[in-house]
Q: What sequence folds into this?
């Protein structure tokens, strides 16, 4: 069914747009296409409805997640928790219908977010916590809600406006001490959808976490669930990721020598090459 | 002149390699003194998806440069300042490369319409004039938090944008998109660690 309905819009252009933005951000794509505006918009919407991704046929146009204290998807994206799957590349995409109370937005591909056996590291915080959101698209906001267990502990009106540059909410969690998972929900103003983030906290904790803090014992058969990012290593002969390089440092990469001309901590995609002459010059 | 050279180089590469799917060699040029100004050549073969991706990526990189440019003169941690400077330098380089490819193809270097015109529909990813203004106006106390969260969202959306290159034909554009996808993902990891502090 989806196939026949979708056939009409499968030009490479529209497929590219669809794959990239789904319904979200359609107007950005339209903007870039200029003359193709009239053609593309309805087709993208029709294609999406046919694929069954949205029940309403309304364009959902926003993405976001809680960056601090780190949500589960932020821990995946920062590699603080390893082996998360696709969510590490798109922490902003935990989108589902409004009213869910799960961490994964009901999305099977992000089910790891709802898996408490992963022993998510809990951030030690005071009894009042400031939650900060990252956005990759800003859509009108109905409200933000925060839940602990089944209890809604805070709601912040969005006024059906686009969010500010950075959104932070201070939430009183004094009635919920100890190890807690907070569900933060961003309800979109003009779609049926919401974005979900779960944040693991040790509320009211001090330097000495209470006895309830340690995560449940992990099964011996499973590998350690979390891997802290290794500290930047010392520059050595061969270029490597996650290494703090300073101006003048020299490395070898794929048999060639390079000298650093811009201090940075190395990462994938910044290998010395003709694409990164701003960082490395051949010696 | 440079345009002609580029076109000639691209044509030569195309002729020499036929339907090559290999990215250009990353070897340093023989004359290292000129290396800093070198721009990798792109094959002549390309399609509309390549053009659209490069145009949108130029706009996206340029928006990001507005953020990193503001961080240079403000009070932020050494780590954040260093990351901002490296992102600034690499994205300037990318813009130069992408513009040279589009120019060599005789294509416009910017998208046909102003993307920010659609901000009110919620279609603008991450960063527009309002967000840049908010960062400029942020107090010293708020600046780093605002900067890191804005840049994180901006680089998150760059990862999404690279999917547009999937339907392109040009091998160098695909290679660049892969590098952008990887580097932005790792930048987000660094940014989130800076935002979140020690675990």
A:
């Amino acid at each position: 069914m989806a196939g026949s309905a979708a056939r009409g819009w499968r030009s490479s252009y529209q497929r590219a747009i669809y794959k990239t933005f789904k319904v979200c951000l359609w107007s950005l794509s339209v903007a870039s296409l200029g003359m193709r505006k009239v053609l593309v918009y309805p087709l993208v919407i029709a294609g999406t409805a046919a694929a069954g991704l949205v029940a309403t046929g309304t364009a959902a146009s926003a993405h976001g997640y809680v960056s601090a204290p780190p949500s589960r998807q932020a821990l995946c994206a920062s590699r603080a928790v390893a082996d998360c799957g696709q969510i590490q590349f798109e922490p902003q995409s935990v989108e589902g219908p409004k009213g869910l109370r799960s961490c994964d937005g009901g999305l099977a591909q992000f089910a790891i977010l709802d898996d408490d056996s992963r022993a998510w590291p809990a951030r030690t915080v005071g009894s009042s916590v400031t939650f900060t959101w990252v956005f990759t698209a800003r859509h009108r906001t109905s409200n933000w809600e925060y839940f602990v267990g089944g209890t809604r502990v805070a709601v912040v009106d969005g006024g059906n406006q686009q969010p500010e540059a950075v959104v932070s909410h201070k939430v009183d969690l004094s009635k919920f001490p100890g190890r807690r998972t907070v569900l933060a929900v961003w309800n979109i103003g003009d779609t049926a959808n919401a974005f979900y983030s779960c944040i693991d906290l040790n509320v009211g904790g001090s330097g000495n976490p209470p006895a309830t803090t340690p995560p449940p014992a992990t099964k011996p058969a499973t590998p350690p669930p979390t891997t802290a990012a290794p500290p930047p290593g010392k520059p050595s002969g061969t270029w490597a990721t996650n290494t703090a390089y300073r101006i003048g440092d020299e490395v070898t990469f794929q048999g060639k020598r390079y000298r650093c001309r811009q201090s940075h901590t190395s990462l994938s995609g910044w290998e010395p090459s003709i694409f990164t002459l701003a960082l490395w010059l051949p010696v | 002149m440079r345009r002609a050279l580029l076109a000639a180089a691209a044509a030569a590469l195309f002729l020499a390699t036929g339907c090559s799917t290999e990215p250009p060699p990353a070897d340093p040029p023989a004359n290292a003194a000129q290396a800093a100004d070198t721009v990798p050549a792109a094959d002549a073969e390309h399609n509309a998806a390549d053009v659209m991706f490069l145009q949108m990526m130029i706009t996206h990189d340029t928006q990001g440069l507005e953020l990193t440019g503001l961080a240079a003169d403000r009070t932020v941690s050494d780590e954040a300042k260093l990351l901002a400077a490296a992102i600034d330098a690499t994205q300037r380089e990318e813009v130069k490369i992408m513009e040279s490819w589009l120019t060599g193809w005789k294509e416009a270097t910017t998208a046909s319409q102003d993307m920010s015109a659609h901000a009110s529909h919620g279609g603008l990813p991450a960063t527009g004039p309002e967000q840049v203004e908010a960062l400029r106006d942020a107090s010293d106390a708020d600046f780093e938090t605002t900067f890191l969260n804005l840049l994180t969202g901006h680089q998150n959306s760059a990862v999404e944008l690279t999917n547009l290159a999937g339907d392109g034909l040009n091998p160098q554009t695909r290679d660049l998109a892969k590098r952008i996808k990887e580097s932005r993902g790792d930048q987000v990891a660094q940014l989130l660690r800076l935002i979140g502090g020690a675990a």
Notes: Confidence is low (pLDDT under 50) at residues 1-61, 207-230 of chain A. Chain A has five helices and 14 strands. The two ends of chain A are 59 Å apart (CA to CA).
